[in-house]
């Protein structure tokens, strides 16, 4: 069989239907960054979509080096003659299929992470503090890799919580994924801003221009990001040693009970960290100990108080935001889940206009968390329902009329935050909670149902 160049759109079509692609050779972009490893089978549609976004429109397949293309049943698709022309998927179909694939992968990743944190908690209870750190590192690395697929991928990893055990398990995963998504955005944006500042500074200081113009500032290195994500995953590990009747109490905690709760950070959490020889890692230690510390001067009910808000690291501040957000938006035995949009608004009100850095961090948090994730159902101001196909915007497709009846035809996607749309009364009704796809499925038009269930 001869080598052949295959269009990226053809490969996208095949993989979107459950097929597999293996190139047989490494594929790089124009900057020399590796996009596809020669021996890795591609079954993830998002990888090909990302490659297309990088401007790569044709992919070589080399059968002599084990490259090939297979359908969903594992049958090899012949490269001779050339691949048959396939139906060209519309942009909307591609976006919806991408959403569905991310959701499916998220379910698998979440289950693995949940199994891992359950084992960590069980091991701590049995041993008094020891657990398998290597398994935690592997789980978190897997979550980190998944989060690089899509900025809003974390939204498919967060799960509703129904019991105390579920809360401790799921809260660890939710905070890890939310905080990591925020940190990644912050890291990129802060680095870009500082780099631009340094270039401007160098131009204004010509004597040092040669030296300063090459300076680039990166907030956290990849190795640090990995350790920080592990810290996010373990941030509440000390709660395993807090009595259930206090953690699960329905009414207001007494002063003594609150004092016991506080020990999950600086006492019990640190004890577990030390037993697992992680105390040498300041990134993990700081998150476990200080994720309830003050973010601005004289913030109430914060602990411990041996660091000022200025001394609390950026990644710990992010963990606190994620911790508050998930706690408020999670269903517990003693409270219902709050509307995420209202929670983001409340967090903004509490922490805005405090310090410049905190303000920057808060806006980053809102941009990542205060979004409508792809695949969600929202209500418009005129009562229509819309399916979100892209969280950036967000871009939505209205699929009912204002009376709740399914629309006929295929409405065009629209930017729900654009002034034109808002002026027409088609903006998002922020008073209404995000609806689940399951609840609204019967209202979806046929073209959306087919794309979702493909």
Protein structure class = alpha+beta
What is the ordering of alpha helices and beta strands? EHEEEHEEHHHHHHHHHHHHEEEEHHH
Mean pLDDT: 82
CATH superfamily of the largest domain: Hypothetical protein af1432
Main CATH class of the largest domain = Mainly Alpha
The number of helical runs is 17
Give the strand content. 5-15%
What count of structural domains? 3
- For the termini, the CA-CA separation is 32 Å
Write out the strand line-up for the largest beta sheet, numbering strands in chain order: 7-8-9-10
What is the CATH architecture annotation of the largest domain?
Orthogonal Bundle
Question: Which fold name is given in CATH as the topology of the largest domain?
Answer: Hypothetical protein af1432
Give start-end ranges of low-pLDDT stretches: 208-217
Name the overall outline.
globular
Portion of residues in helices? 40-55%
Major sheet: size, sense and barrel closure? 4 strands, antiparallel
Q: Give the radius of gyration.
A: 24 Å
Tell how many strands the DSSP assignment holds: 10
């Amino acid at each position: 069989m001869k080598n052949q160049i295959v269009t990226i759109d053809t490969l996208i079509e095949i993989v979107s239907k459950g097929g597999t692609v293996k190139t047989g050779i490494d594929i790089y972009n124009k900057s020399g960054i590796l996009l596809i490893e020669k021996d890795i089978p591609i079954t993830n549609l998002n990888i090909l979509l990302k490659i297309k976004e990088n401007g790569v429109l044709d992919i070589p397949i080399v059968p002599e080096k084990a490259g090939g293309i297979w359908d969903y049943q594992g049958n090899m698709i012949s490269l001779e003659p050339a691949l048959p022309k396939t139906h060209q998927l519309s942009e909307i179909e591609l976006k919806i299929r991408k959403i569905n694939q991310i959701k499916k992968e998220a379910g698998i990743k979440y289950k693995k992470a949940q199994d891992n944190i359950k084992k960590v908690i069980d091991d701590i209870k049995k041993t008094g503090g020891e657990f398998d750190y290597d398994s935690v590192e592997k789980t978190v690395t897997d979550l980190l890799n998944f989060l690089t697929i899509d900025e809003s991928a974390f939204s498919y990893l967060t799960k509703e919580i129904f019991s105390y055990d579920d809360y401790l398990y799921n809260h660890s995963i939710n905070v890890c994924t939310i905080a990591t998504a925020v940190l990644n955005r912050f890291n990129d944006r802060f680095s870009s801003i500082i780099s631009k500042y340094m270039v401007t500074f160098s131009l204004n200081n010509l004597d040092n221009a040669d030296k300063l113009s090459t300076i680039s500032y990166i907030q956290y290195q990849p190795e640090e990001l990995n350790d920080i994500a592990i810290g996010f995953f373990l941030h509440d590990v000390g709660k395993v040693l807090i009595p259930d009747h206090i953690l699960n109490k329905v009414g207001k905690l007494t002063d003594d009970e609150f004092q016991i709760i506080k020990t999950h950070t600086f006492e019990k959490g640190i004890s577990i960290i030390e037993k697992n020889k992680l105390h040498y890692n300041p990134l993990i230690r700081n998150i476990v100990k200080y994720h309830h510390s003050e973010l601005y001067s004289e913030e109430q009910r914060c602990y411990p108080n041996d660091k000022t808000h200025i001394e609390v690291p950026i990644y710990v501040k992010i963990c606190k935001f994620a911790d508050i957000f998930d706690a408020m938006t999670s269903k517990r035995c003693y409270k219902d889940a709050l509307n995420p949009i209202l929670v983001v608004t409340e967090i903004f009100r509490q922490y805005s206009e405090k310090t410049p850095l905190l303000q920057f961090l808060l806006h980053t948090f809102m941009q990542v968390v205060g979004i409508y994730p792809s695949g969600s159902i929202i209500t418009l101001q005129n009562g229509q329902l819309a399916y979100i196909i892209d969280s950036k915007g967000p871009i939505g497709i209205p699929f009912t009329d204002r009376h709740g009846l399914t629309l006929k035809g295929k409405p065009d996607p629209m930017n729900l935050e654009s002034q034109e749309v808002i002026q027409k009364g088609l903006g998002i009704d922020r008073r209404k909670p995000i609806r689940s796809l399951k609840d609204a499925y019967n209202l979806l038009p046929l073209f959306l149902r087919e794309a979702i269930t493909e």
